[in-house]
Amino acid sequence: MKKLSVIILVIAMLVTFAGCSSSSKDNDANAKDSGDKSAAATPTEIRLGYWESPNEELLVKQTGALEEAFPDAEVTWIEFQSGPDILAAIQGGSIDFSTIGTPPGTIGIANGLPYKIFYLHDVIAESEGLIVKADSGIESVADVKGKRIATVFASTSHFSLSNALKLDGLTDADVQLYDMKAPDIFAAWERGDIDGAYVWEPIKTKLLDAGGKQIISSGEVAESGAITGEFGIVSDAFSEKYPDAVKTYIDILDEATDAYKNDQENTAKLIAPGLGITEEEALISMNEIIVLSKADQTDPTYLGTTAEPGNLAQLMKDTADFLVEQKSIKSAPSVEEFQKGILTQLYD
Amino acid sequence: MKKNKYKIISAISVCTVLLLWTIGSIFKWFNPVFIPPVKDVIDAFLEVWENGYKGYSLPFHIFSSMKRLFFAILLAFVTAVPIGLLAGISKVFLAIIDPFIEFYRALPPLAYYILLILWLGIEDLSKIILLFLSAFAPLFIATVFAVKKIPEARLNGAKSLGAGPIPLFFLVIFPSCLPDILTGLRTSVGVCYATLVAAEMVAAVSGIGWLVLDSSKYLRFDIVYFGIIIIGILAIIIDSFIRLLIKKATPWIGKE
């Protein structure tokens, strides 16, 4: 008797569980239906993931331009420390928009996560690089063989580091790699636990100030084709329901890009507190990335248009192929699949 | 006979879940990224078993974690038990150290982990100390209470039979406390094991917890699943080992 009741209980639990997963699918479908009918609907809530990157989106956050454009919506900015955390949040339906580095952004699309790329905020140039201790004996990328190097795994920096190593005929396995969050890298450096780090601003500047020297920057690595940057992504649920709101956000980002490029002093003043650095440092950081305007998005180098897709899908394919080579992901979808993950139609 | 009956129920329950997982993945009830098919998980396991994960073999990953766990528990045992016994005997000593233990044991390990890294570096030492701290408090508290639980009559009886302080400690107090200490050890191994994944979050390149964390960054949930299954099975093995130890070390329990 008892045996039976236990079994029934287990089965009941599992059926409920399976029921939950299928009912959430129904909800998605409902969202799709209502999305088609009311394209002009305005969101009541906008949740954005961001991180301490000196890009134009941070300027939008600091000026409050998004809050101004959507006075009826509750706008929340949620800070993240790494791309994989953002992927988890967007899958869980906790955020609508986010900035994300190109490698994690690609990993998510390759795994069919429910989001699309609607923008390329910036291309990383000097803002990330391999910084080593002056006394580490490292003079070139080839010298890092066997050295202790820290980076944030699965990030743009890790991707650029692996590509830099590849250019010198090395792989990750030739280096003692340590996976750390950016702030921890500084602590490990101070203690002398590492010989160097491939990391982004503002930690990069801190390492340089602490006597580090730069061996290679992501801009230099990008010359070989391994470009890294920051995607703007939007959840499927949001973009299907509020396509106009996404377009409005693109215009806000475009205005911010304009201010970012033409009024650098003021921009630095606004974003410096958001980064916890001085205005001078912010100015330097700003010139280490290449921010892109709305017009740049449809350029064949980047997103392109629906009729003529740009190079971005190919870049994502290359990124995914590289990650397969590194045995980090199982397989890379086709260029066409990646193209489907890019919302060029917003610019038509 | 009765015992067997419950074992069979447990076995059926486990099989039902596995069966539903299999059927569910065949009929595509779940998003394959988040609940991967059983076959993918087995394939991932075989692949990692053959080629290792990011430079190290699977047994090495398990060994690195177990090594950290073992040293942490050993360190906790040789410190928490004597200090706990002393604190149980001397109220003054307890009053001196209790506030610190009460304070730190409430802290989430991740809150102070960065400090440990700052003090002790990114190598295994900071990880072992983090695990040690999580294991220390439950074992210490169990030991203190074990001493306090000893019947006054037993101590007085031994004293009136002429036992001095040293024989009293080794022949009466310690054996009386042993069952509770070992139960405390079992708890502290559990807590310590639960901290293992957190300990391998920073600057690790090996360990079963790290394997799960790293593969999740690349959304390799097939690896995450089998990693978690291994973590779970290891926990059961460790726990049954400790239960065996308790049985061997305190055979009089339940027969008094």
Unreliable stretches of chain A (pLDDT < 50, length at least 5) are 17-39
Biggest protein-protein contact in the assembly: A-B, 44 and 34 residues
Which band does the percent of strand residues of chain A land in?
15-25%
Global structural class of chain B: mainly alpha
Query: How many distinct domains of chain B?
Result: 2
Looking at the overall shape, the CATH architecture of the largest domain in chain B is Orthogonal Bundle
Q: Tell me the domain tally of chain A.
A: 2
Mean pLDDT of chain A: 86
CATH superfamily of the largest domain in chain A: Periplasmic binding protein-like II
Strand tally of chain B is: 0
The best one-word shape of chain A is globular
Summed up, the helix count of chain A is 16
Please provide the ordered H/E string of secondary-structure elements of chain B. Answer: HHHHHHHHHH
Major sheet details of chain A: 6 strands, mixed
The strand order across the widest sheet of chain A is: 2-1-3-10-4-11
Number of extended strands of chain A: 11
Oligomer: heterodimer
Helix content of chain A: 40-55%
* Share of residues in helices of chain B: over 70%
Reconstruct the topology from this structure.
The complex is a heterodimer of chains A (about 350) and B (about 260).
Chain A (H helix, E strand, L loop, with lengths): L1 H36 L7 E6 L5 H8 L1 H5 L4 E6 L3 H9 L5 E5 H9 L4 E10 L3 E6 L14 E4 L4 H12 L8 E4 L2 H10 L4 E5 L2 H7 L2 E6 H5 L6 E7 H6 L1 H20 L1 H12 L3 H8 L2 E3 L2 H4 L14 H14 L9 H6 L8
Parallel strand pairs in A: 1-2, 1-3, 6-7, 6-8
Antiparallel strand pairs in A: 3-10, 4-10, 4-11, 5-8, 5-9
Helix pairs in contact in A: 2-11, 2-12, 5-15, 11-12, 12-13
Chain B lengths: L1 H25 L11 H14 L6 H32 L1 H15 L3 H12 L3 H26 L2 H9 L4 H35 L8 H10 L3 H29 L7
Helix pairs in contact in B: 2-10, 3-4, 3-6, 3-8, 3-9, 5-6, 6-8, 8-9, 8-10, 9-10
Short description:
The complex is a heterodimer of chains A (348) and B (256). In chain A, 49% of the residues lie in helices and 18% in strands. Chain A has helices spanning 2-37, 56-63, 65-69, 83-91, 102-110, 156-167, 182-191, 203-209, 218-222, 236-241, 243-262, 264-275, 279-286, 294-297, 312-325, 335-340; strands spanning 45-50, 74-79, 97-101, 115-124, 128-133, 148-151, 176-179, 196-200, 212-217, 229-235, 289-291.
